[in-house]
Write a structure and sequence with these properties.
single chain, 65% helix, 0% strand
């Protein structure tokens, strides 16, 4: 989820602006440190409280805290890093996966009885595998240190391999509409 919040338009938010934002959300900033207050704001907005956890890369390109969060050398990079390119590739694959799942759901809805129940259960399992195997690891990958990201990338690759095989099996099994 992107951290879409108001910004001062100046990049780095001053503590007073952060406190004002917190109050607008019904939070009491008291004597909280800036990072803790931003975490509270992120949580209140329903976002992952990740401020200050990124190591040279963050996939939250629209986040208003980005200038404060990343070291200046990373925040200003215009070129896409290897990690960023990989994350974009995985996001595109997820979109394609979601389209296939949507098609499978439509076909499954046309089935009746046990065949319909079976197909919908298998689709639900595919969605769960996607959530656990890909989406959560993508978030971990975005925050991972350079050493950890290679291992996490391998985990995503393995999850994709398993998920592709499961989708292929499910599609071949349920692609024909039985009435």
């Amino acid at each position: 989820m992107l951290h879409k919040t108001i910004t001062s338009g100046k990049g780095i938010m001053k503590m007073q602006e952060v406190q004002e934002k917190a109050r607008m959300l019904g939070l009491n900033p008291g004597k909280m440190k800036k990072a803790d207050l931003i975490h509270a704001i992120q949580s209140k907005e329903g976002n992952f409280p990740c401020f200050g956890t990124a190591k040279d890369f963050c996939d939250q390109t629209e986040c208003c805290w980005r200038s404060d969060c990343l070291p200046e050398k990373s925040a200003g990079k215009m070129e896409i890093s290897e990690r960023g390119a990989y994350l974009e590739k995985v996001k595109a694959e997820l979109e394609e996966f979601n389209k296939k799942i949507g098609d499978l759901k439509e076909k499954a809805k046309k089935k009746v009885g046990k065949a319909k129940t079976e197909a919908l259960e298998e689709i639900k399992m595919l969605e769960k595998k996607s959530e656990e195997g890909i989406k959560l690891k993508m978030h971990k990958l975005a925050e991972a240190s350079e050493d950890v990201w290679k291992t996490t990338k391998k985990g995503i690759d393995n999850s994709w391999k398993d998920l592709r095989a499961a989708v292929k099996k499910t599609m071949s099994k349920h692609s024909k509409v039985k009435k």
